[in-house]
Amino acid sequence: MHWHAEVWCHCVSATCRKAVELARVVSPASVITLEEEWGDWLASQKQMDAAINHFIEAGSTLKAIEAAIAARQFTKAAGIVDFLEPAKAQPYYRRIGQHYEESNNRDEAESYLLRAAAPLDAVEMWMRADNWERAQKVARGYLSEDQLHSFYSKCARACEANRQWTDAERAYVAGGEIDLAVSMYKRNKAWLAMLKLVQQHRREQLPQAHLMVAQVRNLAHVAAAGALQYDGSSHG
Which residues are within 8 A (CB) of 136 and not within 5 positions of it... i.e. 6 or more apart? Predict the structure, then answer.
């Protein structure tokens, strides 16, 4: 029997350690190949945890990372990813970050998402968790001007849709969209909040805003009085 066939027979009979020992004596140069084949066999048997070190010994870094992720050994996976070039490492850091978000370990998730050069993913994670302060911190620290503006706009619209007026105002103001915040309060007839906002950010428009509110309230008062008069006459 050819030595390689003999070695592989040992492997498939689940005595791969002996096969590697034999290869070290018969053909040391083949040990790397055999370690990878051993790892492949273990992976095919869903023994991912056991396969990791064999892939490492074989220098099959990407297979080692995939095995570690499949085995949910994310700390070990990250340790292996650290040896990759940044461009190759980033997709794996992103996957590790997503795992930590699913595990509700958002601090760790943020760390890996930033290492993955995916700050927008980190911002959106904090938004999903309703943590405006952390989302804003990451956004200000890592997003471009265009991304930052988009972030504030998206956050403001989401808050407004959920009738979270204060948070929506804060997002509109942070994004420089004062007029949109004013319009939001107008649509929802939140006059006091609107006047306060105008006083803070559009002070020159404050007299006009007061006049508009007075007119709206007067019209509402007239309409209400007319309705009462009509209701009384219809029952007379």
Answer: 174
DSSP state letters, 177-208: -HHHHHHHHHHTT-HHHHHHHHHHH-GGGHHH
What whole-number distance in Å separates Cα of residue 88 and Cα of residue 181? Answer: 43
Is residue 77 within 8 A of residue 69, CB to CB? The reply is yes
Grouped pLDDT means (10 residues each) for the chain, 236 residues:
49 56 58 81 89 90 95 94 94 96 96 96 91 90 91 89 90 92 93 92 90 78 43 48
Rounded to an integer, what distance in angstroms lies between the CA atom of residue 98 and that of residue 214?
Answer: 52
b/e string for 69-103 if b means 16 or more Cβ within 10 A?
A: bebebbebbbebbeebeeeebbebbbbbbbbbbee
Long-range contacts of 178-187 (CB under 8 A, 24+ apart): 178/202, 180/156, 181/156, 184/160
